[in-house]
Amino acid sequence: MPFRRRVLPTVLALTVLAAGCGAKEGGRVQVKAGPGVTDDTISLGILTDMTGPYKASAMTRMKGYELYLKQVNDRGGICGRKVELKVKDHAYDVQKALDAYFELEPQILGLMELVGTPMTTAIEPDIIQTRTLTAPVAWSASLLGNPHMMIVGTTYDLDVINGLDYYKRRGIIREGDTVGHIYVQGSYGDNALEGSTFVGEQWKMNIAKQPIGETTGDLSQQMAALKAQGAKAIVLSTAPAQTAAAVGVAAAMKWDVPFMLNIVGYDPALLDSPVAAAVEKQVSVVTSVAPFTGTQPGPREVAAAFSKNYPNDKPALYVDHGYTVAKVFLAVIEKACKNGDLTRDGVLKAFHDTSGLDTQGLTGELHYSLVGRPSSTQSYITKVDRSAPGGLTTVEELFESGLVKLKGTRAR
Question: How far, rounded to the nearest angstrom, does the alpha carbon of residue 65 sit from its chain's CA centroid?
């Protein structure tokens, strides 16, 4: 089915609720409003995978959204309006995502979650056309050029640079060594590879590249090739099932090679798999969002809220991710409210005026005033630990490699 595009009557859709923006009536702030904004509510969209391969992370992330929205609504909402979520499931199917999006889009002010690279690629032209602020569950640098995309945290390539910097400082890798990189071809893996390639150029390391497809299940050939090349460490920019496959092959080969994962490749379910022991022993995860066990004020706040509201549920980093995205997205909506403009253009203006946003350690300080630049360049290094809630413990707090600064300078 061809992609459907249409021009919305944006001007006609806007309603001026009062002549004086910022005036109050019964506790409700009177503002210029657009799609998804009524006298009583602000509706935000969630277009996610609730029944497909990423169901577990999506459902856990939803709890993070709900925790933060509850706090906001308990203190009166935004502009005197309750914030609500309109949720659609695409089951990781592009056509279902398109159908769900076109039903959802007229009802919302912004899209607080969009899951899936294929879905994002298909929907992105309409997001640009309708000027809808969108938070994709992705950290690809290719999204930075779209001024409607809110990337919460740093990009895959910078995470990889920070991760390999940690390995180098620990003496796990040295100049001249071979580092393997198994990556899923596409915007995720290709961007992550940019990071390892840059490290290789700067530190005179050989980056042994092993591209795979999204559905590749057997990684025996790739792992054998990397062992033959003498890889001292392996970067995995893969899906969780592929992470399990790679670590499982290494265990069968009795090869204690350390693995550094992009966060997309980790799932707490790995600790319930047959390769759990090897994962715990050999795997580190680099992430720009704090793990559930993070010690900074932000992660501690999330942990306390989660324990109170979901005492019988298992936590995971995805709770912190959802909470962080909600915190940042609603900070932008609140700024638009103060500006008296809850139209999509008003939200975009507030978004691009947002800089130095402190998430209290859930991520590094976030900056959105420069389109094309990551909102943050810092990462956490975590270690898989089955005794920790969520399965990850911090081994290095937020930091930025000197190579990240160098890469940023060259990009300018």
Answer: 13
Q: Which residues lie below 8 Å from residue 315, measured CB to CB, with a gap of 6+? A: 60, 292, 303, 306, 389, 390
Q: b or e along 57-93 (b: 16 or more beta carbons within 10 Å of the residue's beta carbon)?
A: bbebbbbbbbbbbeebeeeebbbbbebbbbbbbbebb
- 356 and 383 in a common domain: no
d(CA 402, CA 216): 34
Q: Per the domain annotation, does 374 fall within a domain?
A: no
For residues 149 and 160, state if they share a domain.
Answer: no
The pTM assigned to this predicted structure is: 0.90
- Do residue 307 and residue 362 come from a single domain? yes
Q: For residue 20, name the pLDDT band (cuts at 50, 70, 90).
A: very low
The per-residue pLDDT for 117 is 85
Report the relative pairing of strands 355-357 and 41-48 from DSSP bridges.
Answer: unpaired
Structure-token match 């398109």, residue found: 98
Give the integer Cα–Cα distance in Å for 145 and 373: 8
Q: How far is CA 147 from CA 219, 264, 277, 353, in A?
A: 37, 23, 43, 12
Q: Which two tokens stand for residue 169?
A: 């400082």
The verdict on residue 195 lying in a domain is yes
Q: Which of 4, 94, 88 is nearest to 47 (CA)?
A: 88
- The pLDDT of residue 29 is 67
Q: How far apart are CA 305 and CA 6, in angstroms?
A: 42
Q: How far apart are CA 285 and CA 289, in angstroms?
A: 11
Q: What is the pLDDT of residue 22?
A: 43
CATH number of the domain encompassing residue 141: 3.40.50.2300
Secondary structure (3-state) at 230: coil
* pLDDT score of 56: 87
236-290 pLDDT, tens digit each? 999 999 999 999 999 999 999 999 999 999 999 999 999 999 999 999 999 999 9
Distance separating alpha carbons of residues 52 and 239, to the nearest angstrom: 14
Domain that holds residue 201: 156-287+379-411
What is the tens place of the pLDDT at every residue in 36-86? 999 999 999 999 999 988 888 999 999 999 999 999 999 999 999 999 999
Looking at every residue in the chain, the average pLDDT score rounds to 92
Structural domain contains residue 373: no
Give burial (CB, 10 Å; 0-12/13-18/19+) of 286: buried
- Looking at the structure, tell me whether residues 169 and 265 fall in a common domain: yes
